[in-house]
Specification:
single chain; mainly alpha; 0% strand
Length: 58
């Protein structure tokens, strides 16, 4: 696998984890689940933003 595919796999994993935390937040209304859901979502966007830049440097 090249670097770009690895970055996309990481983004998919982060989105899935964010969805799980969002479901947990909806079920329990615990702030920690909401914070972690937002954090994972932001990290997924950051990974998708930098994936083409990393592939261009190789």
């Amino acid at each position: 696998m090249d670097r770009k595919k690895v970055e996309y796999v990481k983004a998919v994993v982060l989105v899935v984890v964010a969805a799980i935390f969002a479901w947990g937040f909806g079920s329990t209304q615990t702030a920690y689940f909401g914070i972690f859901a937002v954090l994972c979502g932001v990290l997924a966007v950051f990974v998708l933003w930098r994936a083409p830049k990393l592939a261009a440097h190789e």
